[in-house]
Structures are given as C-alpha cells and as structure tokens.
Amino acid sequence: MASLHWPSSLFVVRHGQSAGNVARDLAHEAKDERIALTSRDADVPLSDLGCEQARALGRWFADQPLSGQPDVLLSSPYLRACQTAELFREQGGCSATTPICFDERLREKEFGILDGLTSLGIASSYPDQAEFRRLLGKFYHRPPGGESWCDVILRLRSVMDTISLHYAGRRVMIFSHQVVVLCIRYIVETMGETEILAIDASGDVANCAITEYRFDPSCGTSGSLVLERYNVTAPLDEEATPVTHAPDQIAGARG
After folding, report:
1. Mean pLDDT in order along the chain per 10 residues (255 residues)
2. Is the dihedral of CA 191, 195, 201, 203 positive or negative?
3. Do 173 and 72 form a contact (C-beta atoms < 8 A)?
4. How far apart are CA 78 and CA 140, in angstroms?
5. Angstrom distance (rounded) from CA 3 to CA 122
6. Whether this model's pTM surpasses 0.70
7. Strand pairing report for 9-14 and 210-216
8. Among 66, 69, 47, 48, which Cα is nearest to 58's?
C-alpha cells in the first residue's frame, strides 16, 4: 500500500507581472544595455497589471471547492512573489487565516555581476561571460557572484524534502519565479538537461500561470506526484485579464 509522503496537491505559480518585467521590455525595445531599475531585485514590486493578475488568480481559486484550494502557502521572499501570495489570499483563493511561509530557497535565480544587464549590455561589458554561457549553456553557466540552473536545483531539492516532511497529504501552493517553476519540474519529473531546456525553449512561463501536480498512490512503488497541468492561464483568461510572458534572459530578466 502506497504511503502518502507527498502533498495531495502541489501548485507552483509564477508571480504576477513585475515592474522589472516592464522595465526589461522597455530596455530591449530601446536597445539599452541596462534595465532602468534602481532597487535591488528582491525589492521589485508587481506592476498594476501584475496586481490584477494576482487578484484574478485568487478569485478563480475562490470559486473552486475547498478540496481544490491550497491550505499551505509557500513564497519566495522577493517582494513581487510576496505581493502575489497576499493578493491571492485577499481575494479568497484560500482561507483568510492561511499563513504565508516565506522560504529564501524559493528566491529568483541570482545573476551576480550580470544582474540588471540586457543581452546587449552583457556582450558589451562582459564578453567573456557571454562566451562562457555560449559554451556551457544556460543550465551550467554560473556568472561570478551568481547561480547556474544547477545551483537553483540544489537548493530546491531541499525545499522538496521539507515539503515532503512537513506537508504530506496537504494542498501546497508555491509562489515563485520562472526558473524555479522549471527547476521544480526538473526535480519532480526526474528530467535531464535536454528535457527541461526543451520545455524552456517551447515558451516562457506566464505570469500567474498554474502548474499543478496531484499525488497518485498507484504511481511507482510508493506513490508519486503526477503532472496535471503546466503553465495554465485559465484564471486570467476567464476574466479577460491580459496574460504576460517575460522571456528568460541571460540576466536581468527580473523573472
């Protein structure tokens, strides 16, 4: 008989559109080398549209039966993820008394010396890093002071261990960032580099999109999480809230 050592449901949500996403798009359109932001990445807030996306997500979950709503909220400590979680809860996406647990391991991928630069800025200021990334690929390249995808995966493995230990049988929702969503898929579905980069290349994770896993006791020898849906924007579509996708950049994506 399978033992339930995983959540009964695991929802992974990317934060709503941020001011950084907007600034990044403007910088690329203007062919600027640096994104026009003065705050550190951790303090970048949601845009007005991002706030509405988070509210739409909360209202959509509020219309679901209680069994379809999360009863555990975990969030990256970065402001844009925190705000998404708070607005989701305010709109009834879960019980108003559900605490938001902040976990630094769910933070955005760190870009080190390349943070805030566009691809043009990296090529101009750090051509050696642009070449290293070309040779190593985005999965393994670690800019000075920053992280590779492998580094993100390493810290997320411990997050999954924590979830397994403390939230077995619960309905868990994670609010985080694009690379984190993809790296959680890599871990849960036991993928390789080629598989996860193919998913990444097929399209960006939309702001406030839902990726959902359900525990299947018949899967494997002791049950496992099985992907139900990926990058679903139904909550936004139902309210005609604009869907935004900020592409993953070498750095400065503010994703």
Report:
1. 78 94 79 81 95 97 96 98 98 98 98 92 94 94 97 98 96 98 98 97 96 94 93 87 70 48
2. negative
3. yes
4. 24
5. 49
6. yes
7. antiparallel
8. 69
Parallel/antiparallel/unpaired status of strands 72-75 and 210-216:
unpaired
Q: Which of 176, 192, 99, 189 is nearest to 139 (CA)?
A: 192
Looking from the CA of 211 toward its CB, the CA atoms found within 13 Å total: 28
DSSP structure string for the chain:
-----S-SEEEEEEPPPBHHHHHHHHHHHTT-SB----S-GGG--B-HHHHHHHHHHHHHHHTS-GGGS-SEEEE-SSHHHHHHHHHHHHTTSS-TT--EEE-GGGSPPPBGGGTTB-HHHHHHH-HHHHHHHHHH-TTT---TTB--HHHHHHHHHHHHHHHHHH-TTSEEEEEE-HHHHHHHHHHHTT--HHHHHHHHHH-PPPTT-EEEEEEETTSTTT-EEEEEEEEE-HHHHHTTPPP--PPPPSS----
pLDDT of residue 250: 44
Q: What are 64's two structure tokens? A: 């679901």
Residues near 34 by Cβ (< 8 Å), separated by ≥ 6? 27, 116, 117, 118, 121, 252
Q: Residue 216 pairs with which residues in a beta bridge? A: 224
Q: Enter the tokens of residue 149.
A: 């995808």
Fold of 9-18+51-113+136-238: Rossmann fold (3.40.50)
The pLDDT of residue 247 is: 57
